[in-house]
Amino acid sequence: VTTFIQLVFSGLALGSVYTMVALGFVLIYKATEILNFAQGNLMLMGAYLALTILTQFHVPLVVGLGLAVFVAAVIGSAVHFVVMRPMLGKPLFSVVMVTLGLSILIQAIVQLLYGSVDRVYPVQVPNRILTIAGARFSQLELTIIITVAVLVVLFALFFRYSKLGLLMRATAEDQEVAVMMGVSADMIFSVSWAIAAGMATVAGVFMANLSQVNLGIGDIGLRAFPAVVVGGLESIPGALIGGVIIGVAESLGAGYINGSARDVIAFTILLIILMIRPFGLLGQRTIIRV
Amino acid sequence: LFASALATAALVATACGGSSGGPSTTASCTNAAESQGVFKDHVLIAIVGDYTGPTAATQEPYMRGIQTYFKFANDHGGICGKQIQWQEGDDKYTVPGGQAAWKQFNDQTPVYMYFGNNNSSVQDSLQEQVRNGDTPVMAESTTANSLFPFNKNFYQVVETYELQAIEGLAYFNQKISTGGAKAKAACFSLTVASGTQYCNNIKKDVEADGGTFIKHWAIAPSAVDATPEATQIQASNPNVIFLHGSPNTAITLFKAMDKLGMKTPVIGIFAVISETVYTTAPKAVVQNFAGIHSYTPAYISGPGNDEMNAASKKYSVDQTVAQNFNFVNGWVAGKVFVAGARAGAKASGKVDHSSLRKGLDSLNNFDTSGQSANFTYSSTDHQGLKTARPYTFDFSKNQLVPIGNYSDYAQYFKP
Hints:
By secondary structure, chain A is mainly α.
């Protein structure tokens, strides 16, 4: 039983990391209907921004993280104006290819500026070990789980009750009508990119605490993809549920079968969900009348 | 016969005297062999590896070390008057990436020497093409398939996984085992060819030594959590864990071990040991960690490292890269290559693949001035380094500490 609890909790922690990445995908998709393949490397950018701030200004981790989120949000917004806005009205395939190009560009710039050598934050998220019900957990994992839970609630409330959230949903629902009603689609899209980049920074900093600051941080972007699709591309709670399902399933699979079962399980779940509910567990079924 | 003996003597004399990047031979080779990457005034080298993928932190310093040595050698006459030029290729630690790079630098832009195939799965997938081709190859790590049976084109610059396994077990028996207890070993690796090979070697050596091999666990390079594997390892109660992978693999495993309260000694291959592993992973775990490495860290003074450190500053290499363990590895790989190329050119009066192979094969007990054990290649053996040594860590100085000399571990090499 202890092993089971241990594996489930590790899966929850892993799932929380997937959820953080998935939230970034969902935020962009919800507002712009663009599947942003640069989300993983936005995490990479955020992790290195935090590294720069922490090493240059010697500020506490929370302050460094806050500043990094702010700078990343500004960059995210700029990405919309410089890279994505010219793509408005272009075929979806072209837009997706642009996000792939953006991903490669971000990684190349980070490598150009920082090189490939592993780096370490001068201050880390506390990582004491706690024992609950005979199973052992790290403080870092608990911090990630709690942070993600809080973020999911905040985003759900934001989209449901705030004016900006409502405008973002309206724009995603029907861009033309929203614009005719006086909504600035430009502003909505840039805010979406800003929030997604900020969110990616939080995820990147946690990833860097789980291992090191290095160019591999963005790789989890693709590993989190099954979580995004399972939960539903435009659902905030779906990102949480998808992340947790995939994280726990991977952990139990690796624990009770072997490590190679991780990807098999994740992508099997993805295939099954796509066959039964192509729009994801909490995604919206779209009915088009012709 | 006499002429052949003279030529061999000349090659050996050049090789033994050429431990430094300069001064080079005064002669100038004017030949060109463009299909072999040899031009009138320069030679073209490919330096391919993982510049941006999951093992870039290990491989990039290695490749920068090679490049820095080339700059140093160019300032000392290059290779028989020809400057060394190079092109980079990024395989991102993927087999398709490695194969594409190999194709590029063999078919489209032929090179004089190919530094690449550092990913063991890439290496295994290309070993027949390397064997049947003409381009000499140096790789950062080597699988048995590339070396045996003898491969005229493949040169190793890091001790084999087989020897790293033997020396790791010897280190366990001599320094860790209490009361002469035999190893009850778990093996943890990346999901690549060398991981399987290394763990198979551990299994063979541990069982031959009368110990018990429990199981081989493998994890993907991009994995961020090893708790399930660590849970299984803990349940199997090993007295030593042998580790293959990268610094990230090590940190992922060590964090999981710490979470589970495991303090089992861990012995790793060359690619997992770095200062950041010791400073990032929980101390309770890493204080029981040692790694086997073929090279001497840059901050340990010696004639070879002093020369390298001066050059890295002269050529404005980022010192976080230049002080990396693997930078030394790259610098020495460049040094060995240049010594071999010069020896071959001096003996034959021309620069091409054939003279390069002959020159490299003439390196006998090539002295790297303290940066590693001596190198020996021959026309029947390309293992090069036949010994390495374990390292632990001094937490007060944040530096790796060697356990003994390279020669202490030479006894484990069996031809």
